[in-house]
């Protein structure tokens, strides 16, 4: 086969950038054998020359001038792995304005300015590929766009933040407190020194905004998503959840609701231990998708890390090089600027099951007061867990409910928190049941 | 966007064909909105007109003349859902010879004549799409070809036959015998009246030949695969496996071995209950893949059934219509005719752990004899399970081993089966440990 050379300008030689440089250098022959294309690192732009040398990949074509590298007429593709919404945005805009395709793993940038950048790409007859922006190495964006194209997606439920999943797994398996588990995650390199973006749920929300926009053919902003992190979780709740047959996971959920609305949320969630998502441990990610034809599917793998993320970036590079991304990007009209904002389900209208943990005086009649309030808000109980008191004045009472309306639940909680026999506030977490398959009734 | 019409000739209106006709008819607008292409059913060829009417999709363009439908100059794509290697092969050859792309779910045809048909497609400047041929609705072929293109795949381990998995799940959960569980599967529509193709492991081997050919860029014939079905499994072994912390699954395994060889096998396997594959129940399928960059990934979903399989077929139709398949098929040079046959690992050289169930006389010294034979063949024990005898003359003794060479194990078994104190033959099953991630050492 006649061979073609495809010249790549790589911006950023950090964790993922270094992984991409490694794959493109060490596996150049593998990629050439598979595709008939010689994928060549033309420029590696990074302000830190030492960082590029430390990759140990020989004499890489290093530069500190990203704009000149992008502008090099030989550059066929720009791979942006700087991250953030500052200088990275400028380079992406510049590349697209020059009609050069961009591969990026930058979820923050796409979550905040995706539709605008995609539109810029279309205007300049080029494309953006972004498989690595969500769930690291798992080819889930490809699956949504291509593999599930025949499906009206009913629900997308993901564990998309490896840091949180690592922390929760540590808490569950070893009975650690949140801060102990966070320290473990930092020691193992799974959490940053400032872990706020991850543990607050914001990172997961940025990924969900992208995944949901694609899955539901709409425009979901990060601010459309109701977000609760894992940083206030107490080990007692992971333990009680376990006693009830559940595991607590930080889930990112987008689900089709009546009247064409979508519920959008990221929060710690009780998942039944027999659910596949409950088995996703450590820093792994997984995304469950329910399609009206396909039914339930799940995509599992490493959601972060140097080489897994580089695997997704290089897959994008290959597809751009083969001309597949440009054709798909144009025809699928991804994240169309014309798409209206998502019709989101108001938080109060969510139907869910709930887990409540009350700290109650060890006195008769407390449970009766609580259940009376719940009943008056049309909330019925599915289980109650109250252990024998250990001579302490206050005892934990755990209640799980059947499906209830979130607005009703919040009103009931307000009243419960004002009961004299309880020490407020009650802990309230949501429980997820697997969506019904084939809800669309094909 | 200017709209283009893409005309489809569908061959076969059976289970999957009916599902495809349903999606193309009922979701025509969804597909048009997503792609800008009007996917139109031009001909539905089936010898049985009643079957087409029974789809309840209105006035479908039915014909009994498949060749004329293929030859219709308006036909842009032929979708072959007849199955088997008879008339279906003839229609596929005819379509490709005319330069018309083919979408098919026909694993038997591709396993036996894939390289030849793919070559015919290339010669006529057209393509074959076959996502639905393995693991039903799960987009795993797309994942191997596109999502994992940057990976040297180290291992592929799949549950790819829903019938067998349904039967094994019934046996495990409800303690049914093989024949009781088979009857349940037939009643539920998960097994054919003649279930041989499924329960013998042949169907799984056909799928593995395709998946392994793609994953390892080689040519794997069905006859290269060592196959053992589930039809001789006894409920006792599922129970003992459970007691030891394992579940028995029919696994299709392709794994890179030293000296560039591949081990290829389909057999009932003990899977640790914490392994995700152990959680794949009922008629679901899953494929675990280990890539040198990505590490472990798993793809899960419905491996059969009308609408899930149709979901994969329609995804292929869309990608052919968009011109993506033709470009990828040509550049990736899938199943190249020039590829040499796979260098398979000789069966005797397999390294595995084993589960043995012996039926032993309840007399002293039997276990000593057995362990002596195993030891003399360099096989060491990892666990022994022998319950107190219930006054019966023979008792089951279950042994699990550490890694051993299959050739050694078989020689030891020959000797064990000749021991006077045992009732032959001993039951022997393989145990799988999860492959190490990043074995390639990136």
Written description of the protein model:
2 copies of one chain form a homodimer. Chain A is α/β, with parallel strands linked by helices and 442 residues long. Chain A folds into 3 domains: 4-129, NAD(P)-binding Rossmann-like Domain (Rossmann fold, 3-Layer(aba) Sandwich); 142-302, Dihydrodipicolinate Reductase, domain 2 (2-Layer Sandwich), CATH 3.30.360; 348-432, Alpha-Beta Plaits, CATH 3.30.70.260. Chain A has helices at 15-26, 28-35, 49-53, 66-71, 87-97, 107-123, 140-147, 162-174, 178-187, 196-199, 202-215, 235-243, 306-321, 324-332, 366-376, 406-417; strands spanning 4-11, 37-45, 62-63, 77-80, 102-104, 128-129, 153-159, 226-227, 246-257, 261-272, 284-291, 295-302, 351-361, 381-386, 394-401, 404-405, 427-432. In chain A, the strands form 2 sheets. In chain A, strands 7, 8, 9, 10, 11, 12, 13, 14, 15, 16 and 17 form an 11-stranded mixed sheet that branches. Chain A has a 6-stranded parallel sheet with strand order 3-2-1-4-5-6, sandwiched between helices. Chain A is elongated and about 80 Å long. Chains A and B meet through helix 1, helix 2, helix 7, strand 12 and helix 13 of A and helix 1, helix 2, helix 7, strand 12 and helix 13 of B.
């Amino acid at each position: 086969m006649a061979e073609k050379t495809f010249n790549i300008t790589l911006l950023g030689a950090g964790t993922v950038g270094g992984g991409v440089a490694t794959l493109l250098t060490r596996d150049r022959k593998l990629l050439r054998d598979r595709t008939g294309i010689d994928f060549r690192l033309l420029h590696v732009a990074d302000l830190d020359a030492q960082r590029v040398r430390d990759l140990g990949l020989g004499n890489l074509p290093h530069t500190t001038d990203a704009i000149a590298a992008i502008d090099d007429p030989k550059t066929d593709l720009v791979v942006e792995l700087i991250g953030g919404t500052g200088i990275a945005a400028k380079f992406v805009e510049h590349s697209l304005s020059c009609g050069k395709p961009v591969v990026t793993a930058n979820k923050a940038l796409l979550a905040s300015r995706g539709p605008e950048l995609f539109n810029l790409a279309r205007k300049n007859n080029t494309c953006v590929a972004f498989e690595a922006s969500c769930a690291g190495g798992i080819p889930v964006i490809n699956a949504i766009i291509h593999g599930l194209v025949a499906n009206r997606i009913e629900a997308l439920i993901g564990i998309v933040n490896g840091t949180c999943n690592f922390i929760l797994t540590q808490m569950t398996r070893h009975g650690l407190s949140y801060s102990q588990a966070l320290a473990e995650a930092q020691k193992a390199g799974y959490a940053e020194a400032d872990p706020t973006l991850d543990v607050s749920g914001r990172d997961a929300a940025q990924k969900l905004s992208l995944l949901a926009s694609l899955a539901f053919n709409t425009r979901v902003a990060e601010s459309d998503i109701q977000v609760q992190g894992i940083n206030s979780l107490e080990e007692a709740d992971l333990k009680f959840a376990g006693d009830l047959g559940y595991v607590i996971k930080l889930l990112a959920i987008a689900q089709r609701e009546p009247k064409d609305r979508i519920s959008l949320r990221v929060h710690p969630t009780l998942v039944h231990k027999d659910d596949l998502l409950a088995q996703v441990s450590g820093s792994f990610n997984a995304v469950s998708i329910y399609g009206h034809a396909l039914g339930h599917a799940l995509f599992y793998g490493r959601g972060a890390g140097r080489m897994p993320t580089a695997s997704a970036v290089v897959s994008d590079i290959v597809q751009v090089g083969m001309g597949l991304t440009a054709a798909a990007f144009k025809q699928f009209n991804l994240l169309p600027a014309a798409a209206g904002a998502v019709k989101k389900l108001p938080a109060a209208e969510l139907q869910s099951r709930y887990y409540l943990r009350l700290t109650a005086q060890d006195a008769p009649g407390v449970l009766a007061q609580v259940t009376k309030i719940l009943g008056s808000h049309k909330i019925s109980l599915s289980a109650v867990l109250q252990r024998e008191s250990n001579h302490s004045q206050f005892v934990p009472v755990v209640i799980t409910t059947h499906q209830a309306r979130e607005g009703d639940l919040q009103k009931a909680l307000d009243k419960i928190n004002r009961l004299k026999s309880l020490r407020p506030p009650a802990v309230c977490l949501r429980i997820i049941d697997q969506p019904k398959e084939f809800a669309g009734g094909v």
